[in-house]
Specification:
It comes from Metabacillus endolithicus. This is Uracil-DNA glycosylase. By secondary structure, this protein is an alpha+beta fold. It has a three-stranded antiparallel β-sheet, with no helix packed on it. It is built from one helix and three strands, in the order E-E-E-H. The mean pLDDT is 92.
Length: 59
């Protein structure tokens, strides 16, 4: 069974930082990285991101 990749841009915990070396941030895990946070979490833990929550849709 193949996992569907997590799109951090659609997650409510994702944010863009001002740090040019680490432009992607995750408020749920509390870190910044050069790659998307879900990729960093997968590489470090071997598991998919467990804190993904889709952003609320604005009306």
């Amino acid at each position: 069974m193949k996992e569907t990749p997590i799109n951090c841009i659609k997650c409510k915990h994702f944010y863009v930082t001002w740090d040019t070396r680490f432009p992607n941030g995750c408020r749920a895990y509390g870190f910044k990285s050069a790659a998307r946070p879900a990729i960093t979490v997968k590489k470090s833990s071997g598991m998919a991101c467990l804190k993904y929550e889709q952003k609320a849709i604005k009306a």
